[in-house]
Every structure is written in C-alpha cells, then in structure tokens.
Amino acid sequence: MSDVAAGRRVRGGGGAARRAERSAVSLDTARFIERNIPNLEILNEEALQIIEWNAETVLEEVGVNFVENPAALELWRGAGAQVEGERVRIPRGLARQLCATAPSRIVQHARNPARNVEIGGRSLVLAPVYGPPFVRDATGGRRYATMEDFRNFVKLGYMSKWLHHSGGTVCEPTDIPVNKRHLDMLLAHMTLSDKPFMGSVTEPSRAQDSVEMCEILFGREFVQQNTVMTSLININSPLTFDSVMMGALEVYARNNQACVISPFIVGGAMAPVSVAGTLTQVLAEVLAGVAYSQLVRKGAPVIFGAFVTSIDMNSGAPTFGTPEASHITYGAGQLARRLGLPYRSGGAFCGSKLPDAQAAYESANSLNMALLSGVNFMLHACGWLEGGLVSSYEKFVMDADQLGVLHHLAKGVDVSENGQAMGAIREVGPGGHYLGCAHTQANFKDAFWRTDLLDYKPFETWEEEGARDTVALASARVDRLLRDYQQPQIDPGVQEGLQDYVARRKESMPDAFV
Amino acid sequence: MSDVAAGRRVRGGGGAARRAERSAVSLDTARFIERNIPNLEILNEEALQIIEWNAETVLEEVGVNFVENPAALELWRGAGAQVEGERVRIPRGLARQLCATAPSRIVQHARNPARNVEIGGRSLVLAPVYGPPFVRDATGGRRYATMEDFRNFVKLGYMSKWLHHSGGTVCEPTDIPVNKRHLDMLLAHMTLSDKPFMGSVTEPSRAQDSVEMCEILFGREFVQQNTVMTSLININSPLTFDSVMMGALEVYARNNQACVISPFIVGGAMAPVSVAGTLTQVLAEVLAGVAYSQLVRKGAPVIFGAFVTSIDMNSGAPTFGTPEASHITYGAGQLARRLGLPYRSGGAFCGSKLPDAQAAYESANSLNMALLSGVNFMLHACGWLEGGLVSSYEKFVMDADQLGVLHHLAKGVDVSENGQAMGAIREVGPGGHYLGCAHTQANFKDAFWRTDLLDYKPFETWEEEGARDTVALASARVDRLLRDYQQPQIDPGVQEGLQDYVARRKESMPDAFV
C-alpha cells in the first residue's frame, strides 16, 4: 500500500442537498480573525535589539527628509529634533517615546455595525488589492481599468465571505478624471457595500472629501469620535516623507481617522540587499512616520506598515512570495508588537502575468507568511496580479477562497472532550471506518474548511464537465456572483446626500487627467 | 503613490552573462536543510499531555491488530502486552519505553558520499513523489506510467538542485510485471542517480532483494553497518498492521535499514473527524509501530511518519493543503520531537487534476507547513498531482523550484555586521538608491533566492515570447533537463553486478500482474 491510495474516493458523507447548498451564493461575512495560534518569531532577542539600536542610530545620525513641508519641520523642531534644511535628525529614544501615545488596537466602524473590525492584538482583517491601473479577466484579457470594473470589484468584495473590508483603490478607474475619481470610488464603497473602507490619499483635499463624505454617511459627530476609515500612507523609501502623503496623513490624524504608515520597499533598490538592513530601515521609517502622526494629533490611530518585496537582480523586476520577503515580514511583525502598534503587511502577492501556478505559489507563500507573522491588517489579500499592475477578476475569487484557509488555520486545535473524540476511537476500533460513527455524524458539517471554488470531483466527472482548470472555475464564479449581487440596504436620504456631494464637488473643478 | 509601483521595473544589477549562466543546467545539489528558524508550535503543553495520555489509553484499552503475523504476536507477548487473537493491548508506558532505543538522527548513505543525508534534529531532507500509477505531461496528457517514465523522473530528481533524495516509486512502471518492477526501479535509482533512495516494501522478498542489491552497490559489510535505504511502511489505519508491510519492516530492521512508520489517514474516514482525535490515533499507531521495530531489532532506525489528509464531506474525496491537515502536521511534529524521533510528513500535496493554480495553492500551503512543522524527511516534495494518482512532469520541476524557497527560508536572518548593512544606509541616505552602492555590489549575487523557472520578465517581452504560463515554462524546462542529462559515474563492475542480479531474479519467477 502506498500513499497513492489517497487518490481513492471514500463514499458517504455527501448528498445532493449539501451540493445544492454549497452552490448557492452566501452573503455571510466571517468575523475578522482572532488568532488562536502562535506567531512565528524568527528573530531572537539579540537580533531584535541590534535592529532596534541600529534604527535609532539611523534616525539620529542619518535622519529622514520631510519634503516641502515647513509645518512638519516646525513640529519636529518643537519636539526636540535637529532640523537642517528638510533633514530631520531624531535623538535616540525620541521617536519611540512619541509613538507611545498611538493606540495598540483600532476599531474601524462600518455602516453596518456587524461589519466593524478591530485592528491590533491578535486580530487579522482582510482587505482586497489596492492600486492597479489594469484589470484582467479570462475572456477580455488585460486592459485599462474603468469605473465599471471598480464597481464590480467592490461587489465581489461585498459578496466574499472571508473578506472583512472593502479596501480602497481596488483598481484605478482610468476613465474618470484623476482629480474626481476618488469621489466615485468612495461613493461605490459607501453604497454598493456595507463593509469598512479606505479614504483617498492622493491629495490632502481628497482626504478632506473622504472625511466629509463619511460625515454624510455616519454623521459628523460620529466621525469625530470614531474611526471610520483606514487609509494607506506610503513612505517614499529610503527615509523620505513627501508632502502629498503627509498632507493626507495630517487630514486623517486631525479627524481621528486611521492611517497605515508604510515604507514602500523593493529590497536591493529602496533598501539594503539584506534582511537585517532592510528591517532597520523599515523600523526607522515607521518610527519617524508614527511619531510624526502623534505630533499632529496625540492619540491618532496609526498602523505599522511594511510593504516589502525583493528585487530580481537579473531583470530588476520586483519579486513576490520569496523567502527574503518572508523574513522581513516575520521580523517586522516582531518589531511592531514590541512597539505596541497594529501591523499591516502581507497580501496575495505575485509577479505572474496570469492567475496560473506561479501566481498561486507566490500568493500562498505570502498569505501563509502573513498569517504567521502576526499581521493585523492585510491589504492586497485577494485579486493582486502582475506585481500589482493588474487587478484580476479570477484571482480575486481564487485568493478570496484561500482566505478561508487562513480563518480555519487561525482557530487552532480544539482539545475539548468532543475534540478528543475518544468515544469515536473506542467505537470504531482497529480496521473500522469513521464515516458512519456518531461523532462523525455530529461534527462533520463544521469540522473541515470547505472550498467554494476548487475542484474535488472524480476524474471522470471532471473530464466530462470540460476538464476545467482553476481559472475556468473562477471565471464561472465571478459571473455568478456579479449576476446574483444585490445592493445592501441604505437610507435613501443618505445615498442622495452622497450623490449630491459628489456632483457638487465634480462641478467645482475642471477635469484633470494627470 | 500606491503599492502598484511595485510593478515598475528597476534597471541595473542584470546583464547578459548572468542570464546565460542562469539558463545553463546546473548539477549542484544543495546540502540537506539544517533549519535556523524555529518551528511553529501550535499545541500548548496541556494539549500535548492530553493527546499523549489519550494515545496510551487507546493502546491499553482498544489496542492494535497485527494481522496474520504470529511471530509479531509472540514478540508482543514476550514484551508484556496482552494478546487476544490478533489484538495487541499495550500497557500504558510500554510502547514509549520500547521507542527509547530508536535513534533520534539517522545518516542515510548515498553511493556518492557528498549526497549523504541526515534525518533528524533540525534537518529537512527532500524526496520526490511516491506511488502514482499515472503520469501527466503537457503534450501527452494523462496516461499509465511506464518504466521509461520512471527513469525520466529519476533523471529529473538527479538534476534537481533542491532535491536531496532520489525517492522510491516515483511512479508505478505499469508495463513491468508487479513481481519484478522493484528490480528495475532499484536499478534505475542506483545507476541513473547518485542520491540516496528507498527500498521496496510490497513484499518481504522484495525488501530482501533491495538489501541484496545494496550489498552489491555498497558492499555487504557497509550495508550491515550503515543505513543506505529509507523505506515507507504504511500503517493500515485505524490501528491495523498488516503482514506484508510488517514483513518488509522486519527485513529492513534486521538489516539496520531505516523505515518510515506512517499512519495513512484520510481524516473523517480512517480517523476521527477532529484534529485532536486524529493526532491521538496517529500517536498510538506510531508508538505501536516503532515499538514493534525495536522488538525486531533494538536500535533499528525508524522515522515517525504522518500522512494525513482530510476528507471533503460532500464528495468523499481526500483534500490537500487544508487547514485541518496543517493542524495535524504541526501537532504531529511536536509529538515526534517529544518522542525524540525523526519526523516524516508534508509534501507538495494537491487534489487538482492539472498543475494549475489550485495545485499550486494547495502545494504551497503544504510545503510551508512542512517546513515550519519540523519535518525531517519530506516524501512527495515534488511532482504529486491529483491526490497522488498522477506523477506530473511539469509539476515535478515547478515544485522542485519552490523547494529552493524552503532552503532560503530555513537559513533565517543574518545579523552579522555585513547583514546589518549600516554602511549602506549611511552611504545612500534619504531619497537615494541602493543598486549602485558598495554593499549591494558585494552581496547581490547570493542575497536573494533566484528561481530557475518562474517568469519575471517585462510584460511586453513576456507577451512577445508567447505569453507562456507556468506549465509552458515547466514543459520547456523538463525537455531541456532530459536532453542535458548525463549519467553520474559508476564502477562498471558494480553496474554489471546489479544488472546480473536483476536478470537472474527476473528469470527465477514467472511474470505476475496483480
């Protein structure tokens, strides 16, 4: 007997009723993950102390640049930093001390309170891909993204059981003027989904629009007292904070809205070609960015971000799902926990042009690492293709299905009396079969994670049905989800108020396409 | 700026020379992995003690069956077990006590000493797929495996940089009579590769043939004093030890050859539909099997095996890359380490019919879990398709490439002065670029894992070259490897001796096809 017998099918446990149930589209959304398994701690205490010491050395001796931002320089000077030109040198210990007022856990409210998420501690909140100018699907190939694509991705995110968050720029709606598309994007998140979402960061005025639209949706007082957006502020690595991103951060911090403060690093290009060196720079940048957020408003909610990929030294291309990116992600998680900050990293990253095996290897490597590195907020958790240039319809539902694996992994092992199953082992005995026993009957429905997408059919059935690969199955699922989509209920007055705001703001500006 | 900029290519660091170097086939084989990262311990002390207590309860109260094996029953009776019919009930503590004489680390010798492997401690040894009656390739589709396929897979394994072990039944050569194919398979491993391999277990006489052929290859005395085979002994779960497998185990144990003693479990069918219950049964079975090996010969080298998959309760199909299989694999690793035994589990498992995204998600989930669960010997590390029914040519080289990721992950983080890279951070400063700096130039060649297969090309180049997916790239790599294959040197007298042995043994038996 060899392991090939694993290919044998075991009869029983099935039934047409359950198959029908499974093929129906469900609108359940799982609660955000609360891990019941440990994180993987790859750095020992000595390594952590070296990196923390070095990061402070970088802040003190090399410093960071705050570009075209005199007000920021003034705040830093007031806090005790040395400012020369745009260079800010931060005395050892000061940035860490300023970071202490940032909360360790953030509740982000959704318009449907059942969809509220908590970011921090042992939580993991999953949000879709962010930023691609292109989309790809199995029938239309690769093309520039439009507002219709954007709405479709918001709908797919709303219908995904395992996605807790509607995200932000799920793709760039390139058919809408650059200076107006944030309005349509926010309107889509607010009305087509009831999950939490992100605000615009491409200009301070667009961040302000995001806040004002939230005031229409949630009420002005609620927004001032609660976090209703988590927005993505990238640091221009190495060690540079530009005025556009900082301007958006300032708007959000002043309005008590959360920001992910995230070095944007292709290792070997924007950071040293070594893991410890990259972690040092990441920590220095986050310390400076988070400290600055607390100078703008003490207690402003922020997240320790790390977007890290390594570079292929042959082609110059960024690479994904690689061991070095994993080392950095694991290590940055440890550094974030020692700072007491929520942690953003990970994603279904890949460099592949197609949602093929390469895409899936790389994405699965990244997703597993993100779970085990203690990530609290995972952007790009589904739909990312081609190094982030493309939002893929099929990969969106493929990755989203795999997010169910993370939910079940995070549960850990049940060692209750029922979990121990000693009665079943006694009942079945040597040479017996567990399918019919009482314990199996009582537990099988919830015992194992079940895919909504992948193929487990007998070879002959699979062949008769067209020998479909994962992309073909995903394409059919995308069609079914979009066909079955129904808008979640929203107060008509609120919807009208949002639409009016968008129309008014659009009228107030000429179109801009760059 | 959004993360989409990851899609931008960075110039530099490349060059035609390095591209040429990369496309050449290399015959380096990496040394087996010695982990420098921690294992993930998902069970706490209380959970471990519950499972260990319950496993002893199972052995004592339920017992195990040794089928058609009076000599085994006699050994058990002599050791103090209660034997009734074929049922063996083992008093609490006895099996664990007997296991104590099994070594915690095994050196398996290869005919090329540079390929010797150590199994145990923090090591990880990678071996290819085992057992499939079918093969699949991109051009020929799915068909019954032949001896030519077998030889091809041995060649691919020999040429893989990241595979340390030639494996055993890399596919079933169905064109050779059942009672003779082990001779051809062993001859292929012994002559076409110089990596370590596995012996036959399908009959005790075939195990004896394996030992005798090794005596020709290594010398009789060497074989008696050293381990030169690691063979796969499956337990017929639940709790049943059949006479064929035990007969093979007895031959190997008496000849000081290693066996993997491995429960073969589809969770929900051959074990309870719960993780803790399955772990209890796995531990009980391994305790009984390893204890028996030590009754046959004290000190016989054995490995704690766990082949575990869960069942899809809709279709009855075994499933792979699932969270429950991961929980069991992590937990079984902890149990093996507490027993002080080397641990076999994991593999590039998948249920998919094609080497598509499903196959890659499932395989990557399994490979990551195997590394982090402390596996010492990983069978099925590449080439497994369709629940183990198919050996896939393309998936063999796809998975084998991903095994490089595991090697680099296992290295952990270098925090030496060079790793810290403070000179580079000081040199580059805010807004600079690392590609040209001295530290990057000195380190880039070995800093990052590099694929031999996956696509990182610019979109336009990739499109011009035919927009190939991973399977197409893998198919080309398979062709190139088989074309470039050269047999490793072997003493002509030894090769002739082996060929004579095979011819003589084949003549001595009529063909049997079942």
How would you explain this protein's 3D organization?
Two copies of one chain form a homodimer. In chain A, 60% of the residues are buried. In chain A, strands 10, 12, 13, 14, 15 and 16 form a six-stranded mixed sheet that branches. Mean pLDDT of chain A is 94; it is low at 1-26. Chain A has helices at residues 16-23, 45-62, 70-79, 94-99, 147-159, 181-192, 204-218, 220-225, 243-254, 275-296, 323-339, 357-372, 393-411, 417-420, 422-428, 438-447, 459-464, 470-484, 492-507; strands spanning 33-34, 64-66, 82-84, 87-89, 105-108, 117-120, 123-126, 134-137, 141-144, 230-235, 240-241, 258-267, 302-305, 307-311, 318-319, 343-344, 377-378, 384-385, 390-392. Chain A is built from 19 helices and 19 strands. Helices cover 45% and strands 13% of the residues of chain A. At the A-B interface, helix 1, helix 2, strand 12, helix 10 and strand 14 of A face helix 1, helix 2, strand 12, helix 10 and strand 14 of B.
